Amino acid sequence: AKRLFIPQLGTRGIFGLATEG
């Protein structure tokens, strides 16, 4: 998983909040 600037806020933002709760 490549952590970029824009995709990081979108992809990691959604899955991040869902995973970490």
Please state the structural category: mainly alpha
Provide mean pLDDT, rounded.
59
Q: In this structure, how is the largest beta sheet organized? A: none
Principal-axes geometry comes out as elongated
- Helix share, percent: over 70%
Spatial extent as radius of gyration = 8 Å
Number of helices: 1
Q: How many strands?
A: 0
H-E order: H
Low-confidence runs: none
Tell me what portion of residues adopts beta-strand conformation.
Answer: under 5%
What is the terminal-to-terminal distance?
20 Å
Describe the structure.
This protein has 21 residues and is mostly helical. 71% of the residues lie in helices and 0% in strands. It has one helix at 6-20.
Question: Can you summarize this structure?
Answer:
This protein is mostly helical and 21 residues long. It has one helix and no strands. 71% of the residues lie in helices and 0% in strands.
Key terms:
21 residues, 1 helix
What's the topology here?
Blueprint: H1 6-20
